[in-house]
Amino acid sequence: MYKYLILILALAVMGCKNEVPKPKAIPLIQTVKRPAVTEGRILKIDTALYAKFDRQVLSDFYNHFAHETVWQSSNIRKVILNELAQASQEGLNPEEYKIKKLYDFEKRFGLLSDKEMVDYDLLLTHNLQKYIKHISQGRLNPMALYKDWELNPKKTDVVKILLNSYKSTDFLASIDSCKPQHLVYKRLKKALVLLNSFPKDTLKKITFGEKIIPNDTNNVLLKIKQKLMYWNDLKKPDSLTNIYDSRTVTAIKKFQTRHGLAADGVIGKGTIAALNFSKEQRRHQIIANLERWKWYQQDLGQQYLIINIPDYTLRVVHDNDTVKTHKIIVGSAKRKTPVLSSKLSYAVFNPTWTVPPTIIKEDVIPATLKNRNYLADKNITVYDADGNIVEAANWRASRARGYRYVQSPGTYNSLGMVKLIFPNRFSVYLHDTNHRDYFDKTNRSLSSGCVRVENPLELTAYLLNDTIQYSKTKIADILKTGKTQNVKIQATTYLYLWYWTAWSENDKLLFRDDIYDLDEDLYKKLRY
């Protein structure tokens, strides 16, 4: 018995030893192979100095160089300094990257002490890392700024990018690849260059509250013509008059087109408001838009729908070519359309419309209180919490916000004949409308958040891409039945609901009304 006890204890001890966790293997840091040093000197860095900066990111980078100085090459330093000095071309502020201090170190490079040499190396690396992060994903986090924005967060591996740049045969090209490559971003950079070429703006604001039509005479036309000449929409005449002549009408139409206004030649509040923007205000607007485009993802996919909310335009892009363009109606300033990225899921023909809470509170309840026939006129069925139909006579204002309101399919339905669904937390979608005359308006910030699309059946047929089951004729037959039918969109098609108010085309500055008042506020957050 004694021998058995000894054997059991021995086995137990052996088992405990087997359960001792093995120490985790520490990943090996691969030291970068340096080229032969022909200038400068390599110095050891006291790692305690990292505490003055973004310690971890700096430490991770210098780990690959055995915690020794890196920037011995004068050519590479020149590239870095030039890039930081020209940060304004990306809408960034060079002063944020300590450019003056860096240039001071560089001018004295041959005379720097060992301590100053280490300080310069660290300062250069820290600010380059910061710059890479800013050009890759922007300075600010949109998700922290806006409750109604939902974009996939961009994560920048700054250390990896900088190491790859160091190893690259073209350091500058490697850094440039971090910047947004989308055409709109490049056009924004061009817009900033174009704007900076304009002389100092000393023109005063125009105060005018009426309308001016061709052949009118008005003294305010002198100031209007000066503004048009400043922006190169009107060639400088021999003398200025207070007559709204044909040359000025042509110039106004050019100006209106560049600003997304109705190019009717009538000078009203919208045209005056756009004329009153100063050069500096337009610069702020471009910089705000450059920041936004750094938030947006780079790879948009083979096929996608891209919507510019302030431009009221939806474009279908396939293999980098715009194949279709549709007018849209977007949310009002009170009920904004959210900014988001998603993927189209399916189309719904003959959709019902479940009225959202905001519209129930602000539209349906007040209208029903005034007229109990409102619900029947709009073909809306009311359900209580148990799913029972609530007749108009039994509708109670005290319970009104607890009811569910559903509008039946049909031409009178607020969603029209079709809607396009994509996952998002805001419950918004693309849809038809029973107010198609609204597409003739210039200002189409009219909806309750969802996006209404002109000619949506044409768009839907293109997306379904099935000429047998879902040709225009077959779709018409489905609509005639009045029955709700869901159809999956087979081709992977992404959707980008984005917001930008400035760009350039053919050396012309283009601007749109900042319908949600985001530009100036964003600029202030970027600069202060």
Automatic annotation (TrEMBL):
It holds the Pfam family PG_binding_1. One of its GO terms (biological process) is peptidoglycan biosynthetic process. Keywords: Cell shape, Cell wall biogenesis/degradation, Peptidoglycan synthesis, Transferase. Residues 303-478 form the L,D-TPase catalytic domain. The keyword Transferase applies. Pathway: Cell wall biogenesis; peptidoglycan biosynthesis. GO terms for molecular function: carboxypeptidase activity; transferase activity. The active site is at 431 (proton donor/acceptor), 450 (nucleophile). It comes from the Bacteria. The keyword Phosphoprotein does not apply. PROSITE patterns: LD_TPASE, PROKAR_LIPOPROTEIN. Belongs to the YkuD family. This is Peptidoglycan-binding protein.
